[in-house]
């Protein structure tokens, strides 16, 4: 009887853990997984090329400089900027992604990346976690300002409309 109770408790714990782990949470897949469809007009736009040429794509590299390390030291951090979680919070989307990638604005993509292709209803992708920040409703600016704000040690103001032109890309 004791074994049966133990087995039942273990089975319930495993079921609960499995349900929690696979409950639709998204994982980061990295910007390179977006490249195939988002790198040319024929396949769905040039968003990847826009990102690839942006400062966002080079955000992690900007932490690997003597200047960044000096700022980290001045702020009291004991680690190099590229190893400091407070710096990485805005300079890296995920461990798989170099710099500030697609998922920084559009959300972790594992559950939606195959749901928003040509001929598919984008509502399914949104339901699966895709975020589409918009300029008109202010959500894009709000998203940008989660990092581009006075908490950054190099902040010198943020002109959203001017900066948006550098990263704006077509839906595809």
In short:
The protein is mainly alpha-helical and 172 residues long.
Key descriptive features of the protein:
single chain, 172 residues, mainly alpha, 10 helices, Flavocytochrome C3, Chain A, domain 2, globular, disordered N terminus
Would you give an account of this structure?
With 172 residues, this protein is mostly helical. It has a single domain, classed as Orthogonal Bundle (Flavocytochrome C3, Chain A, domain 2). It contains ten helices and no strands. It has helices at residues 2-21, 32-35, 47-52, 59-62, 66-74, 85-91, 102-106, 122-127, 139-144, 160-167. The longest helix has 20 residues, at 2-21. It is globular. Mean pLDDT is 83; it is low at 1-23.
The N- to C-terminal Cα distance equals 60 Å
Count up the helices: 10
Low-confidence stretches: 1-23
CATH architecture: Orthogonal Bundle
Task: Could you tell me the CATH topology label.
Answer: Flavocytochrome C3, Chain A, domain 2
Order of helices and strands: HHHHHHHHHH
Structural class: mainly alpha
CATH class category label? Mainly Alpha
Quick one: overall form? globular
Q: Helix fraction?
A: 40-55%
């Amino acid at each position: 009887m004791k074994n049966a109770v133990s087995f039942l408790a273990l089975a319930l714990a495993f079921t609960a853990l499995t349900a929690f782990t696979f409950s639709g949470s998204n994982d980061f897949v990295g910007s390179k997984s977006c490249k195939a469809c988002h790198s040319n007009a024929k396949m769905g736009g040039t968003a990847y090329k826009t990102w690839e040429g942006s400062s966002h794509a080079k955000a992690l590299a900007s932490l690997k400089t003597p200047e960044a390390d000096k700022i980290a030291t001045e702020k009291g951090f004991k680690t190099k900027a590229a190893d400091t979680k407070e710096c990485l919070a805005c300079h890296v989307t995920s461990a798989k992604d170099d710099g500030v990638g697609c998922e920084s604005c559009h959300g972790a993509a594992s559950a939606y990346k195959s749901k928003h292709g040509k001929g598919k209803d984008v509502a399914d992708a949104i339901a699966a976690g895709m975020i589409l920040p918009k300029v008109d409703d202010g959500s894009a600016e709000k998203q940008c300002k989660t990092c581009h704000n006075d908490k950054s040690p190099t902040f010198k103001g943020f002109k959203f409309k001017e900066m948006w032109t550098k990263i704006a890309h077509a839906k595809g």
